Amino acid sequence: MFEAMLEGWRQQQLSRNLAFGTVDARLDLLRRFQDHSGEFPWQWTPQHLEEWSTDLRAVRGLALSTVRAYQLAIRSFLGYVCEPFYGWDVECEKRFGTHPIQISHDWNSAKHILDVEGRPQRRALTRQELQLLFDAADEMVEEIRRNGRKGAVAAFRDAAMLKTAYAFGLRRRELVRLEVHDFGRNPKATEFGDFGVCYIRFGKGSGPKRRSVLTVMPWSVTDDRQALATYIRWHHRHRILQQLDNGAVRASAFSTARQQSRAALDFLNWLRARGTLLAECTQHDIDDWFADGPTTRLLARIFMTFAIRRRLCPKLRIPNQPRGVAPTAQPQPERIALVRKLFTDDTLPPIDRVVGLLVLLYDMPATRIAQIRLDDVTTDSGQVFLRIAEEDLPMPEPLGCLITDLTAQRRNMGTAANLTSPWMLPGQRPNRPISTARLRERLRRLGVTGAGRVAAFNELLREIPAPVLADLVGCNPKFAAERASLLAADWSTYAAIRARRAPSHP
Questions:
Q1: Neighbours of 196 (CB within 10 A)
Q2: In sequence order, which ranges of 186-252 are alpha helices (DSSP H)?
Q3: pLDDT, tens digit, 9 for 90 and up, residues 423-462
Q4: How many CB atoms lie within 10 A of CB 340?
């Protein structure tokens, strides 16, 4: 009778398109459980399952996930034999005077409550350890070649397989069945060329399951020449072809592309002369590039932005304000009147009031406002602080209350994916902040323009040294210093200004 039950359960699982290996392993598990209990399914009780589970953990030392999988297999089998449609309960009642019951319940079985059930001792390798592992695999290939022995090709294959497995998170079966034709282009990450997506055809599960893995490792692009070629192909050439298709190509399009490409080449050559690659570029390199040299260096900004978006270099701040241009500031009475309106007009939406005040008081661009997170807003003894450039700045009232109300009643929180959004201003897309285009549109409707930012910047320069303010608002330090000189507000006047504005004491 027991073997007949197992055979019926086997056919049911195969009809569900489960793998033969999975079905056979479950049948072997049921036979081991029957041998351990000494009873047949129509005599099993919850105590048998609990004793067996205790033995698996205390004696055999199996992992919690393995014990849970065994319990689920027994639950599945008993769910089959207890189903009235199959008639096993009636047959057992007729022959043995009893029938099978379900012995695996929520109250005596392991639950899956942890996202990661691996042993704490088995941690993931760090980037440095991975690099050492890859270097050791490459060194093995070179050593075989130097010694003139056979096996260099096989060692090179093993090194490539090791890197591919880590780059795409492949299982052994997925890795050994991978072919060159399983790679393709990712239109969202064109810097990886024809290897932007890895299509897995032999994934884990019945079928087998297919899946796609995107190329995300920056070390997939290691040559600055390839980065420059990608920039020319997917930025300039793509844009010119689009303009040709639309019949609106400009006469200056080709000269502009040539000038910007030349500036990108000059920037890469300048980095190489400093002993730095594009992937290792730092903020100091960016600041030094724009601080000296001809004004044509500003043309490299397009390439830098492209490289940052394509993860070809670290995420750095690119100055927005061209050097040598004196922007026009909004008249101070107009700026003060607009600030007063945002402070007092309760008919305006809170988001408009907060965004407008951050621009007019702290010269924050829309790109930075959109990236404000909830944990950037803190409260201490009733004072609201906002983290700007790693500094917690106290917010004046009623701006502090407006920020608190805005974080408590955030917009675009109706979707399930946005319930855990970390942004102070969530966007309509799940787990994404509000777009800078929407923020700029709101600022335009309020009358907050670039002239208002310039007025705020000038006012801040009279109270904060230029290097500190440059880091605060994310501009070029040399531009801030030049602007401070024009306003006669540099380091030499900082102490005097603070002394004049300090309250007098008797």
A1: 19
A2: 224-231, 238-246
A3: 888 877 777 888 887 888 888 888 888 788 788 887 777 7
A4: 10
Q: Which of 214-228, 404-418, 490-504 has the highest mean pLDDT?
A: 404-418
* 363 φψ region: left (φ > 0), alpha (ψ -120 to 50), beta (else): left
Burial class (CB in 10 A: 0-12, 13-18, 19+), 165: middle
Fill in the DSSP letter of residue 426: B
Q: How confident is the model at residue 478 (pLDDT cuts 50, 70, 90)?
A: confident
DSSP string, 105-134: -TTSS-----S--S-TTSPPPPHHHHHHHH
Q: Which of 394, 390, 429, 435 is nearest to 412 (CA)?
A: 429
How far apart CA 294 and CA 281 sit, in angstroms, is: 20
Instruction: Write out the E strands in 114-227.
Output: 183-184, 197-203, 209-214
Q: Among the ranges 79-83, 313-317, 376-380, which has the highest mean pLDDT value?
A: 79-83
- Reply yes or no: is the peptide bond before residue 84 cis, omega within 30 of 0: no
Both structure tokens of 269: 């050559």
b/e map 40-70, b = 16+ CB within 10 Å: ebbebeeebbeebbeebeeeeebeeeebbbb
Alpha-carbon distance of 104 to 25, in angstroms, equals: 19
Cross-strand bridge partners of residue 184: 197
Q: What spatial distance separates the first Cα and last Cα of the chain, rounded to whole Å?
A: 103
Give 447's contacts (C-beta < 8 A, 6+ positions apart).
338
> What is the arrangement of strands in the sheet containing 197-203, beginning at the earlier edge strand?
183-184, 197-203, 209-214
Q: Is 313 helix (H, G, I), strand (E, B) or coil?
A: coil
> What is the helix (H) or strand (E) element at residue 392, kind and residue range?
strand 391-394
* Structure confidence by residue, pLDDT tens digits, 161-174: 888 888 888 888 88
DSSP strand pairing (197-203 vs 383-388): unpaired
Q: Please name the residue that has the structure tokens 């241009």.
A: 325
Distance in angstroms (rounded) separating the CA atoms of residues 38 and 44:
9
pLDDT of residue 121: 75
Nearest to 205 by CA among 177, 180, 155, 171: 171
pLDDT value at position 73? 93
Residues 6 or more apart whose Cβ sits within 8 Å of residue 2: 34, 40, 41
Find the mean pLDDT for residues 129-154: 85
Of 44-48, 162-166, 169-173, 325-329, the range with the lowest mean pLDDT is 325-329
Q: Are 478 and 291 in contact (CB under 8 A)?
A: yes
d(CA 232, CA 34): 69
